[in-house]
Structures are given as structure tokens and as C-alpha cells.
Amino acid sequence: MQQPLYVLAESTQRTSGADARRSNVAAGRAVANAVRTTLGPRGMDKMLVDSSGGVVVTNDGATILKEMDIEHPAAQMLVEVAESQEAEVGDGTTTAAVLAGELLARAEDLLDDDVHATAVVEGYHEALRLALDAVDGMLIDGEVDREALVTVAESAMTGKGTGDIATGVLAAIVVDAVLQVADDDRRVDRDDIRVFTHTGASAAATELVRGVVFEEEPANDNMPRSVEDATVAVLDTKLDVRSGEVDTEYTITSVDQLDAALSAEDAERRAIAETLSAAGVDVVFCSKKISDPVAAYLADAGILAFSNVKASEARAFARSTGARRLGTIDDIEASDLGTAASVRVERHGGDDVAFLEGSDDSRTVTLYVRGSTDHVVDETERAIDDALGVTVAAYEDGEIVPGAGAVEVAIADRLRSGANAVTGRKALAVEAFADAVDAIPRTLAENAGLDPIDALVDLRARHDSEGVAGIVIDGPSVAITDPREDHVVDPAAVKREALESATEAATMILRIDDVIAAN
């Protein structure tokens, strides 16, 4: 008899065929089920405890999946779906993960019925095309103006923890931040919108600062703590005695020589302050060190200076004030400097917090987020991140759709009617895709305390009669109605991204029929 040929190492584990498929599908469904109950305004929270005892309580899908210690490679693909969704549009991570898990579950049923994986994948891609057409058919007419953007932002934050500040107030702050930094082509650089958090006050103290907020104290205690109508210099050079590029030793043989050397260094440090003062500089932001003697001379000149600021903050200072980042103070000119309405240092909760407020057309803004506890601040920050993402997406694309599951109901209806035009076994995959999409409104109903079957029947009936139907939650009341009437809307980009990323992940996993893992 012929001896077996071993290609893999003895410690290698190999799973193939149906076993590999079941393992991957089970892992994907487990990830989806982990975040399913967080979906919607009535979604539940998860408590995540790390190995060191740190606790995170949140219902943000992206945060949950990031904090979970997931090792299965197929499950990691769904985590990547959520990360991609978060990076692209800032929201819809839970929807994408739940949809991907449902697509895998429905596909497993087809595979068990001897439908080939290739037919399922092709059918899913055909269904995706129909689903995207359905999203286009649900677009709300009209300009996406400030009022519409506030509605989008508020919808994204509904059900998330924001302390004692109303979501409507917070949504208005978020929209003002986006509109402040947007350019004439309706493009927004998210780096121009900073979020700075600080505990010690109620969430109602959260505010929009047209400029930069950072936690830093002046380089010298004798410097002014507030400067109005400030002329600003942003420096990327060390403010101290210049040193040579090569090591040099000097031999000093007398006290007079030592005094002369020290006097020369002192004169150079004093000249730094004099140069900046002569240029009319009131405030200095330096990304490198400012030596104590130079800081003292700057204080004597009435200049407020900050040392070792972060590179990201230096960029923000320059963007907010119009200053150039300088590598030297030699030949400094007025055109190199920026202006600020005010720069001040305040004491908040025992810490020095500095505020640079630019002009009304400042291209950098900061959302100064307050909260009574770390948990409140963290949850508010996560809610703001989601709101920023959807607001930017809606503003740049100029397209919004009804929320509350209305789009998913429309997609499922479109897929079931369109499946008749699909030939072969791919039609079964299109219908399975429709069943998977139904999981979104069904989950919203479950989390709202409704019977999911009855709710789905009512949603389909209302959609057939009126064209739009969603599960609208307003405080203690839950109703199946037109979400547009209650100002519940989402950016179309969020829906498209969730559909595309979930389909891509599901089809990639379904194509795997062999798992080879080194031990």
C-alpha cells in the first residue's frame, strides 16, 4: 500500500467542507448576536470588563466589538466590517454586523438544501444591486439644510447616553461644528473638528468652541492667563540657546571666562523673547521645549507661551488662527503670525484648561464635552462621534432617507418582487437576502417591546398602502408610522455602506471551504 503523504506540520489543524462552513457561520452569528440587543433607541447596554478590571458600559456597537477579545478569524471579519463602517460613515456599525450575521445564517440554510455556495454568492450580489436601488427610491426630496442635519444628528444619538443634556441641544452643537469647518464644496475635514472631554461639570455645560481647547498650563507662572485680540506664533523649534551640530568642548581657565560664557547664553535667551516681542507676538505655541530662562523672559515681556504642545494641536492652532508653523524665529514677519479673539487659561476641576478662540470664520472647532463622571463623558463622546459621522455624511452627499427601519422594509419588499426576474437558484439567495434584511426591523421591534411577528406584518401592510413605514419610538410610546413625520431620518450613505460591507463580508466567508490553522 502507498504510504500517506504529509504536507502540513503535525501540529496543524485543518477543518474542511461542511464543518469549516458551520464553524465560520457560527462565529459570524455569535458576533452579530453579541450586538443585536443594542440596536435602536430602546437597545440595551453591554458591560465590558477587561483583564485589569476596567469597566466600559455602552450600547455603541463599534465600541463593543472593539473591546471584545475575538480570536476566531471569521468573527474577526465581522469586526472589520464594523470598523470599516465606523471609519467610512461614523454610524450603522450594529446594523452592518447584524445584517452580515443574518446573511450567513440564511446562506447556511440554502447550503444545507444543496444550493451551491457560488449560486448563493452570485444571488447575494444581485440582491445587493436591487437593495441599493431601493435605497435610491427612498431618498427624501429637498435640500439637506441645517434643520435637516439637526434631525439626522438627533436621530443618531437617540437612545445613547448623553447625561442631562437633551439630544436636540447636542445635535445643534454638532451641526454647527460641521458647518463651521465645511468648505465651499461641501467637504468637511474631520481633523478640523476636535472633541475634548473633561469631567467635573454636568453634561449640560458641553459647548462649541470656535478654536482649540487643550489641557496645558503656561510655561511660566508669571505669564498672563488671558490675552484678548492676540497675535499668535506657532513654532516648531526649541526655544533655548542654540547648540552646534557637532560635539564641541571649550576650556575655561578663569572666572571671567565663565561669566562671559554665561552672559552670552543669557543674552541669547533674552534675545529670543525680544525678537518675539518686537514682532508683536502675544501668544506662543511651541511644539518643542521652551527652557525655563526663556519662559521667564517671555513672561517679563507679557507673552503667554505653551511648551511641548502636541503636533496635532500645533496643526489645529495654525488652522484656527491662520498662522504659519515656523521652524525658526529668524526674520519672523507679520504674515507668519495668526490672530485669535482670545487665549485664556481657566481652572476646571483642579486642572488648567486652555482655550484658543479664533474668529467667527475659524477653520478649527472643538466640542468641549463635560460630564459628572467618566462614564457619562465617555458615552457622550461616543454619541457625539456617531452624530458627527452621520452629519458629515449627510452634508457631503446631500441625501437622507427615512429611519426607524423604513428603508429595510422597503428593501425587503423590493427584493421579494425582484426575485421573480432572477433565474435559477440565485433567486433563492435573493429571497434569503430579503429575509436577512427583515432582521433589522424585527430586532427594532423586539428591543422596543413589540411582538416581532406582528410588528413585521403591520410594517409590510403600511408600506404596501403608504410607501413608507417604520417603528417610531418617542419616549414611552411606540408606533408604526411614517418616520418622516416624526423627523427620524438617516443619511443614505450609512444604509449603502452597511449593505455593501455586510454583503462583502458574508460572501467572503461563504467562499471559504477549508480552514488550515497552525497550532
From TrEMBL:
<keyword id="KW-0547">Nucleotide-binding</keyword>
<dbReference type="GO" id="GO:0016887">
    <property type="term" value="F:ATP hydrolysis activity"/>
</dbReference>
<dbReference type="InterPro" id="IPR053374">
    <property type="entry name" value="TCP-1_chaperonin"/>
</dbReference>
<dbReference type="InterPro" id="IPR002423">
    <property type="entry name" value="Cpn60/GroEL/TCP-1"/>
</dbReference>
<keyword id="KW-0143">Chaperone</keyword>
<dbReference type="Pfam" id="PF00118">
    <property type="entry name" value="Cpn60_TCP1"/>
</dbReference>
<dbReference type="InterPro" id="IPR027409">
    <property type="entry name" value="GroEL-like_apical_dom_sf"/>
</dbReference>
<dbReference type="InterPro" id="IPR027410">
    <property type="entry name" value="TCP-1-like_intermed_sf"/>
</dbReference>
<dbReference type="GO" id="GO:0051082">
    <property type="term" value="F:unfolded protein binding"/>
</dbReference>
<protein>
    <submittedName>
        <fullName>Thermosome subunit</fullName>
    </submittedName>
</protein>
<dbReference type="InterPro" id="IPR017998">
    <property type="entry name" value="Chaperone_TCP-1"/>
</dbReference>
<keyword id="KW-0067">ATP-binding</keyword>
<dbReference type="InterPro" id="IPR002194">
    <property type="entry name" value="Chaperonin_TCP-1_CS"/>
</dbReference>
<dbReference type="GO" id="GO:0005524">
    <property type="term" value="F:ATP binding"/>
</dbReference>
<dbReference type="InterPro" id="IPR054827">
    <property type="entry name" value="thermosome_alpha"/>
</dbReference>
<dbReference type="InterPro" id="IPR027413">
    <property type="entry name" value="GROEL-like_equatorial_sf"/>
</dbReference>
<dbReference type="GO" id="GO:0140662">
    <property type="term" value="F:ATP-dependent protein folding chaperone"/>
</dbReference>
<comment type="similarity">
    <text>Belongs to the TCP-1 chaperonin family.</text>
</comment>
